[in-house]
Amino acid sequence: MRIRLEEIQPNKTVTRELDLERETINGVSGEVVLEDVHATLRLRTDPLGFVVHYDVTGRAVTDCIRCGEPLVLDVAQSDWISLRVSQPDEQHIVLNQTEMNVRFITEPELDLVQFVKEAIELAVPDYPRHEENHSECQAAFSAEPEEVTDTESASPFQALAKYLEE
Ligand SMILES: [Zn+2]
Questions:
Q1: Domain boundaries in the chain?
Q2: How far, CA to CA in Å, does 165 sit from each of 152, 158, 160, 161, 162?
């Protein structure tokens, strides 16, 4: 789903709705599956290019880096981004908070699916993991060293106990 930015009339807002049933993106820590994504995008022109306001909801499913089990993240993003067609000529560009939301585009066309996927990618933490109080995640995390200790201490005595009984 693409939109030709040139076709947006000044002072008019173009609204697009987008649903993604299932998409996969590559996050920093691995694959992230996006499910039931719904996005509303509102595009309009501004003196330097275009502005996109977006609301994105859905689920991002990835593996917890701590226990390895699936981790479901609810996504609810509302933000905006300014699209500028060309790089400004000024030699010294001071980025302020507002200008962090600027993206330079090379084509007068926007791929909405790609745009929404990138918006969700920003919402997924680099190292996704369950909440600290998630009991199964905690158990998986602490179980491994305990098991190793048990096996090491138990086995020699168990072997000895067998001979003492006989
Ligand atoms: Zn976990």
A1: 2-129, 131-166
A2: 21, 11, 9, 6, 5
